[in-house]
């Protein structure tokens, strides 16, 4: 065989082999739905909506989203850290999702989110023997109240800032309720579902019964906030699964577990 022809064939095979190897080592794009969704769940509980149970339960919204993820075929990696550390991870792009409300987040235009999982609101709580007549936030003027530290209260913040309401902060829900019981303040602000869960779970006893004012205020939908728009294609699937869940017996089972 002609030597030139042999060299040409060898060179051709070599080029083809290099091209094949180069193709094989190229990174293959991975669709967002094939990646585990890194879900930030704060160690500070927000019962009955977020609870880290020993049996793996996560509260109403946590359990609901676990069901939604299964129905949507999304894999989840839980990241359980204090809220402040989760916020730092969010800023560095190391988280994909959190539970929150649109109204509680800054610059939500950067995010995408699911439909609401459950409606939450704040309620006024007082001792049952209190003579105060309070039905709305405007009635709080001139009163002393206790709120949770690091929580936002859109209807109350202007009153607090202007000094029309004297506010105290509690680091725990139980402490908030105790301050109301012991008359350290006139009133407390807390979601009554949260309060009733704490009272039942901790077996709290009070020297005087507490009374909650309904309806609440500052109602928001607790939902999944997805921190990158790469998850936008999955939102419709999440919402479809959520709608199916809410029309199923499983949804009632989740609610009843935390009531």
What does this entry look like structurally?
- The protein folds into two domains: 126 residues, Periplasmic binding protein-like II (D-Maltodextrin-Binding Protein, domain 2); 99 residues, D-Maltodextrin-Binding Protein, domain 2.
- Helices cover 37% and strands 23% of the residues.
- The longest helix is centred in the first third of the chain and has 23 residues.
- Strands 1, 2, 3, 4, 5, 6, 7, 8 and 9 form a nine-stranded mixed sheet that branches.
- The chain contains eight helices and nine strands.
- The N terminus is likely disordered.
- With 259 residues, it is of the alpha/beta class.
Supply database-style keywords.
259 residues, alpha/beta, D-Maltodextrin-Binding Protein, domain 2, 37% helix, 23% strand
Structural classification: alpha/beta
Helical content band: 25-40%
Q: How many runs of DSSP E, i.e. beta strands?
A: 9
Task: Please summarize the sheet with the most strands.
Answer: 9 strands, mixed
Number of helices: 8
Separation of the first and last Cα atoms? 87 Å
Uncertain ranges: 2-10, 13-33
Name the CATH superfamily classification of the largest domain.
Periplasmic binding protein-like II
- Mean pLDDT, all residues: 85
Please write the string of helix (H) and strand (E) elements.
HEHEHEEEEHEHEHEHH
Known CATH architecture of the largest domain: 3-Layer(aba) Sandwich
Named CATH topology of the largest domain: D-Maltodextrin-Binding Protein, domain 2
Which term fits the overall shape? globular
CATH C-level class of the largest domain: Alpha Beta
Whole-number count of domains: 2
